[in-house]
Amino acid sequence: YDFTEFCDFDIGENGFYGYEYLPLYWRDQNRFPFLIYVDNKLAGFVLVQKGSPISEETQIWDIAEFFIMKKYKKRGIGTIVAHKIWQQFNGYWQIRVLTGNQIACSFWLQAIKKFTSSIPTKVDIKVKDEDWIVYKFESMSITTISSLYYKAEDYFFRSISIKSLSFSNLITAYMTGIPIEDLNILYIRARPDGLNNIINQSKKFYESEKLPFVITISEELCVQEIKDILKDHSHIQTGKSVSMYTKLGSQNLVDFKDDYITELNNNLDTWMLPLTGAFESTPEIISLYSNRHKDSLKNGFKLYHFSLHENGEPISSITLSIQDNLSRIDDVATLPVLQHNGYATRLLKHALSAATKLGVEYCFLESSDAGLSIYQKLGFNTLFKNNIYSNPSNIQGK
């Protein structure tokens, strides 16, 4: 009925429009029907098929029908449903929209951009004398993107660590040798078997150098059993963070240029100056941290250090690490008296532009709640949330 505004459909003598392909969704292994419920009330349906009805692409995913009742529209439900469908079926997708249906064109474009953090490929075609817009993009599951996040995270922390202790591919303790708990981290990225043993070995690992440490574990893994074990080891939750990602290209920053920003890989003593005040640390601690970065560069790790200058002085700094087609942002720091003036945003744009020029596809970072808005404005999406646990008796500083 809704499509009679755009298509020449007539109702049948029985009062139904009819849909000749509907029975196939219960027989054809390449067709998948879904019902949409809101508050236990039927609100719409989605029909998904593998293979394009408008081309010879047999492996592409296609939404044949997408319907939500008007009473449930303009509540974000359509976007949520679309994202769940795309997450369930990984691979290449096409979304077909009649050119005259501007509301649908706008909806699908925004939904895809939010899902992929990039602008989809757009193709204008004519099918049976009707003009269509086809959006094409690739869907990656949260699990796949998370694995890429862990890879970028591991690369950065190994680059600045003097040694590490791995319990599995997804559970690693990193030691920077700096007497600050936030710079010695046990990352638990998967449900741990034998958490008591992991914590005990990590304690010995860090105590061998008389270093404090924190345990960072994704929020979804923090079931009561895990919390009880952490409590038994005197680790209490002292913070939270948000793991984020963006697919480069959507920000249109490849040509971003800021004459006040310079790369300082050969002058980290200048790069480190904004970090002291921004991280409420001491020159001695930040100097040790800078030395870890110097060692990282000597060891061949791909780290890029940028600073923004005003009146010849560095006021904001950032680190970009790159491995293959992945990158990660760290050390976003602006002098406290100059914060909230857009300096960090300028640095972030510069770093993302540099990564794009180097052929990077994804960029990741770990944010505090306070920094979420700045990253979201630049196209970063939340991947998952983390809980941070510390042993108060071992804290030596920040």
Describe it for me?
The mean pLDDT is 91. This protein is globular. The protein has helices at 77-88, 102-116, 142-160, 195-207, 224-232, 268-271, 273-278, 283-298, 343-357, 372-377, and strands at residues 31-38, 41-50, 61-68, 91-98, 121-127, 130-139, 163-168, 171-175, 184-188, 214-218, 236-247, 261-263, 303-310, 313-323, 326-334, 362-367, 381-390. It is built from ten helices and 17 strands. Strands 7-8-9-10-17-11-16-15-14-13-12 form an eleven-stranded mixed sheet, with helices on both faces. A six-stranded mixed sheet has the order 1-2-3-4-6-5, covered by helices on one side. The termini are far apart. The chain has 398 residues and is α+β, with helices and mostly antiparallel strands.
